[in-house]
User: Which sequence fits this backbone?
């Protein structure tokens, strides 16, 4: 009973009975997928919280996108894609935390389908020698440089992966500025995208402060853990994403891509509050 997926049950119900495919260009929605680790490691928590996606399931997701003619774009092209009047389906693929299994497991699969992705790095854990974050190995700068030369984009996920809303304005600025500078120094390319660590706080004033700092540091866009598919009305710096993991079989994955998971954005705040950590 503990693993009953109420979120899955309701999502598939909505997908079958209520959600119609978006056809109007004005309410075009673009899914931004949020992956973390691509590995077979098992997790003990409820599947809603899982952050691992097995390589086999990740391959199935990418194959689904490929077979259904999705165009994989990066965050910088979102606005242009919202404005386009064509009927193409777009998707953005993102990875948080800079784990080494992106290099070993995710990239070969992305390459097979000729897809790009954006990886958000907590730069305090990316070094020349291999470090770990949350008990998992991270990539090295050498691997980051190698992936960039093969078409992968990198964004900032702060330096130390803190709960940003607990920090002073100066500390927040350091987290977002120093991580950006470090990636730019190592890759020689401008960093425009930011991924907010942990749950995004429902605090308007904090949002205004953070947006001001992100702009000041030269970012042009950002993503959060808020659940949803992106549309042009969203704040460019705090866009919603769709969390995905091993539990997403193709039926659930397809329903999420088409917006049937978006209802969860409201109860999400409540679910996080009962998560107890
Ligand atoms: Zn993270």
Assistant:
């Amino acid at each position: 009973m503990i693993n009953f997926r109420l979120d899955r049950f309701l999502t598939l119900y909505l997908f079958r009975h209520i959600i119609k495919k978006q056809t109007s260009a004005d309410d075009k929605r673009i899914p931004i997928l949020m992956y973390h680790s691509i590995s077979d490691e098992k997790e003990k928590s409820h599947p809603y919280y899982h952050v691992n996606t097995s390589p086999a399931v990740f391959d199935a997701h990418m194959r689904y996108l490929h077979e259904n003619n999705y165009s994989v774009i990066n965050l910088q092209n979102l606005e242009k894609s919202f404005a386009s009047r064509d009927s193409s389906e777009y998707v953005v693929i993102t990875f948080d935390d800079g784990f080494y299994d992106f290099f070993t497991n995710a990239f070969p699969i992305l390459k097979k389908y000729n897809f790009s992705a954006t990886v958000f790095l907590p730069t305090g854990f990316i070094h020349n020698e291999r470090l770990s974050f949350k008990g998992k190995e991270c990539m090295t700068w050498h691997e980051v440089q190698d992936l960039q030369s093969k078409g992968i984009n990198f964004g900032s996920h702060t330096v130390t992966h803190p709960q940003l809303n607990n920090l002073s304005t100066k500390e927040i600025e350091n987290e977002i500025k120093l991580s950006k500078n470090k990636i730019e120094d190592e890759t020689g390319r401008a960093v425009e995208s930011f991924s907010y660590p942990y749950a995004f706080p429902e605090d308007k004033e904090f949002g205004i402060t953070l947006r001001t700092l992100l702009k000041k540091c030269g970012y042009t866009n950002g993503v959060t853990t808020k659940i949803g598919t992106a549309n042009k009305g969203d704040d460019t710096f705090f866009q919603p994403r769709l969390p995905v993991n091993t539990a997403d079989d193709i039926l659930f994955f397809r329903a999420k891509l088409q917006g049937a998971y978006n209802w969860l954005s409201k109860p999400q705040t409540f679910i996080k509050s009962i998560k107890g950590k």
Summary: The chain has one domain: 6-264. Residues 6-264 form a domain with the TIM Barrel fold (CATH 3.20.20.370). The mean pLDDT is 91.
